[in-house]
Amino acid sequence: MGLYLNILALVLAVLLGTYVIVFGFLKKINEWCYVSSLGEKKHSLPPGDMGWPIIGNMWSFLKVFRSNDPDTFIYNKVKRYGRTGMYKTYLFGSPSIIVSILETCRKVLADDEQFGLGYPLSTKQLTGKKSFHSIPNSEHKRLRRLTTAPINGHEALSMYIGYIEEIVVNSLDEWSSMKEPIELLNELRQFTFKVITHIFLGFTAESVMGSVEKRYADLNYGMKSAAVNIPGFAFYKALKVLF
C-alpha cells in the first residue's frame, strides 16, 4: 500500500511539473516573438504579459467585458504589476500597450502626430476600406467634419431639442413605473440609439428601430471580437448582418 501511494504521488508530481513547464513555456512564446525582437528597446516597455500564443489575452479581456465589472481587466494589471498606468499585452491579434492614466490617455487621443489611428482587424473588415477606421488621419478629419455638421453647434442641435426632451421625459416615466431594478447603461444605450436613428435616418417606428438596434448590436459585438469567421463566433454573426 505504501509503495502504491509513493508511485501515485510521484506520478502526480511529474504531471504537475509537466503542466507547469508547458504552461510557462506557452505563456512565454509571445514574449519571445515580439518583445525579444525589439532588442535594446525592450527595456523601455512597461510591465505586463503577452498571454497565450495567437490569442494573447483576448479570453480574459472579453470575459470581463461581458461581466458586470469590466474594469477588472485593468484592476488585475494594477494588482499584479503596480499602479504604473501603462501595461503591455496582446489583444486583437496584435502586441499592444494599455494606457490607464488620465493625462497619458489625453495625450494619446489628442496627439495626431505621434499617435496614428489604429483599429482591430475585425473592425476594419466589417466597416470596409473607406470607413473611418481605415482611412488616413487627414481624410478622417475631413469626413468627421462632414458627418458631424448636422448636429454640431447650437443652431443644428436646436432642431432636435424637442424630440430629445420628449424621449427623456417618456424614458424617466417608464423607468419610474418599473417595479424591478433597471440596467441603466443598457437603458441609456437604447435612449441614445433612438436619438441617433431619428437624426440620421429620420424614422422613429419602434418595430423598425428594434430590428435595426438588434443588427447594430450584433455588428458592434463582432467589431470588438477576434476576426474568426466560424459559426458560433461574434465576428461570423456580424458578417451575416452585412451580407
From TrEMBL:
Needed co-factor(s): heme
Keyword set, alphabetical order: Heme, Iron, Membrane, Metal-binding, Oxidoreductase, Transmembrane, Transmembrane helix
Topology of the protein relative to the lipid bilayer: Single-pass membrane protein
Keyword Transferase: no
Subcellular location: Membrane
A cellular component annotation (GO) from this entry: endoplasmic reticulum
GO molecular function: ent-kaurenoic acid monooxygenase activity; heme binding; iron ion binding
Entries under InterPro entries matching the protein: Cyt_P450, Cyt_P450_sf
One GO-annotated biological process of the protein: brassinosteroid biosynthetic process
Matching Pfam families: p450
Ranges that cross the membrane: 6-26
UniProt similarity note: Belongs to the cytochrome P450 family.
Protein name: Cytochrome P450
Organism in which the protein naturally occurs: Gossypium barbadense (Sea Island cotton)
Taxonomic lineage: Eukaryota, Viridiplantae, Streptophyta, Embryophyta, Tracheophyta
